[in-house]
Amino acid sequence: MATAELVTRVWIEPGCIVCDACENAAPTVFHVTDDTCVIRPDALNAEFTRPLTAEIKEAAEECPVDVIKFEVVMGEAPAATATPAAAKEEKAAAKADADEPATAAVKKAPHKPAAAAKESGKAAAKSPEKAPTVSVAGEPDPAIQALLRAATSRGGMAVIGKTDAESGPTAKMWEKAPASELPPDARQAKVLKASGETKDGVTRRGVLTGSALGIGWLAFGGASVVSAVAFQRFMMPNVLEEPDPRVRIGKLEVYAAMPPGEVNNDHKPDGFWIIRLEDRIAALNIICTHLGCIPNWLANDRKFKCPCHGSGFRQAGINFEGPAPRPLERFRIEVVDGFVVVDKSKKYQYEKGQWESAESFVEV
Ligand code: FES
Q: Which end of the chain is least crowded, N or C, by CB within 10 Å?
């Protein structure tokens, strides 16, 4: 009795590309679905697989991705099949019996010879990133079909490339075609391109409009601030800030050294002259008592002469000619820390006897 290897267990490892090679070789053992290949329930029994050892080995050999695995034991060799042709017919009959009626009614696409399929399948498994050459017309290539099913069954994506001639109008053709003849997306792209709008929706007109709005708002803000300040000034009391009426003019020794009868013009811009009398100094107001003009000190004539109407005043301020009705006025004067200080807020009039006030002069 001859012995031989007998298959006692067969299984399929992950990686099936659904090429039908195994089912063609052993239809009673393998069943190829739309997504993968499974072992038929009867073939899960060692008693069933032993007589089919040759077919299972053939299926494993023809599998392009080598996912069919099996275990063998040494045992009594089964009786040989009469002829290869008869074996093929038996396989076909067995497959027809094994398939369900609905499945059997659906004819699968013709396949390449198993060897060719194996070669192309292995090549694809080694370099899956390479896109196969595909013809979009005519009979589909079984190997390509198997590869596409394998890719899509695992969640992948398969793409069949086309030439420009096959893929219809190109982008340049769409640019030349009228918008009314284009599909909606191409028409929108053409309109956006013509209007100058970018994919982000930013246009030249939009930028200019935004700039104009920004300038407008800036001007509005500026005008609002100016208006608020003007309103505040309008609501506030209209108070004039006058300069400090007290003027510190210098050390007392300077003015004490003046000869009697002399006039110091240095503080005429401040509104007064410093006059040196016999035993004192005084601050004489420069405003003419007629109509408010400002007289000038004429040293040669020893008098103040008003240029407006000709009024004349002696060096002490007494009026003696012209329309001036009364003498010039004097300001309060004092010495603070050795410095002479004139206070223009307080005036002293000769006709009222105020020149005798101690605050209207400083003794020297
Ligand atoms: Fe001085 Fe008339 S204002 S004389």
A: N
Ligand 1 mutation pick, 287, 291, 297, 303, max ligand atoms within 8 A of CB: 291
Task: Return the ligand 1 atom nearest residue 323 CA.
Answer: 4
Alpha-carbon gap, residue 344 to 287, rounded angstroms: 12
Q: Convert the pLDDT of each residue in 71-97 to its tens digit.
A: 999 988 766 544 444 455 555 555 555
Q: Which residue's alpha carbon is at the smallest distance from atom 3 of ligand 1? A: 291
The rounded distance, in Å, linking the Cα atoms of 268 and 294 is: 10
Looking at ligand 1, which residue's alpha carbon is closest to its atom 2? 309
Specify the ligand 1 atom closest to the Cα of 324. Answer: 4
Residue linked to tokens 């002399």: 262
The domain defined by 3-82 folds into Alpha-Beta Plaits (3.30.70)
Q: State the residue for tokens 């050999």.
A: 61
Ligand 1 atom with minimal separation from the 295 CA:
1
- The candidate with the shortest Cα–Cα distance to 72, out of 54, 59, 84, is 54
Identify the architecture of domain 246-363 in CATH: 3-layer Sandwich (2.102)
Task: Count CA within 13 A, CB hemisphere, residue 71.
Answer: 8
Return the structure tokens found at 252. 């007392």
Rounded Cα gap, residues 197 and 180, in angstroms = 20
Closest atom of ligand 1 relative to the 292 alpha carbon = 3
Tokens 């700039």 identify what position? 211
Per-residue pLDDT tens over the stretch 243-278: 889 999 999 999 999 999 999 999 999 999 999 999
